[in-house]
């Protein structure tokens, strides 16, 4: 497919038809065993076109990654090479004249510019043949799954969602109303309970109900009750996820009693899991450490254990320090922590968190998966992690 870039008619209608038929990014095997890729954008009026390939391109605040325009055409191109087992997400961001990255003001100015432009003009790749998904906050994403990328079979099974209901939780303690999804994958007494943070993503953008039903039917998961909690907005997520006592008290005092009134969930903390990703991974572990009588198992994916210092990439963050100071003392949690090998600023703090938990006597499963800070990666680890934690 990369041969398309060598044609003399780059940018012609016939060439774009060929691109559309081939799908993007264009690709070919690399001599080093990876895959050479070319990302494309079509636009004659653009002043610039930016690209964010999660966990590959540099963070935009250090200088956004831009495509290069093929002279005399409406074609924009950016080339790179990735491992053959790469799985991840990306989006493209066209900028009109006057919307280019600011030349002054430093990182804060670039960050504000990027967030504003991303919120208004970010686009999934129109030539990517795979269905787009999203961040949960309106930014469309295209998946990039190279030939050797793993995909959990439950995501391919096409199972029906089963018994799923969406409910409104009006919290007096938190002062906000939000959606909560309840999914029961079977019947019986004392069903395991799974609380999944960032529920809006797993309910709307990467619906997890069918895969959970499939794995339950296959016997990989036991029948259970899943509670997916909407984060409401990025601002509220930033308030409630980082080790917020009020949030977890509201969950225990308001939400979970309502769940128990609908479904016969177990009171045994060893069969009650809280799971989350990024800020949600931090929140999940904090909730279990602070209230082990409610949650005895944790699934933390790419947990933001740098918090509250975003510059921290190694050593103990605040939560690890609290564990060493006695938080969760007397409890014996089972914690599964995973982080992507391409998350270079996250592996150190996640490893330190795992070590702190193990040193405090908790049962810890710590892994580095092949991937980055990305929902496409977390979706497989979520299913495998639940299967491990719910294993009899």
UniProtKB/TrEMBL annotation:
EC annotation? 3.1.1.-
Q: Which Pfam families would you find in this protein's record? A: Enterochelin_N (PF11806), Esterase (PF00756)
What keyword terms does UniProt attach to this protein? Cytoplasm, Hydrolase
The places in or outside the cell where this protein is found are: Cytoplasm
A biological process term (GO) from this entry: iron ion transport
GO molecular function terms noted in the UniProt entry: enterochelin esterase activity; iron ion binding
Extent of the signal sequence: none
Residue limits of the Enterochelin esterase N-terminal domain?
38-155
- Its name, as the record gives it, is Enterochelin esterase
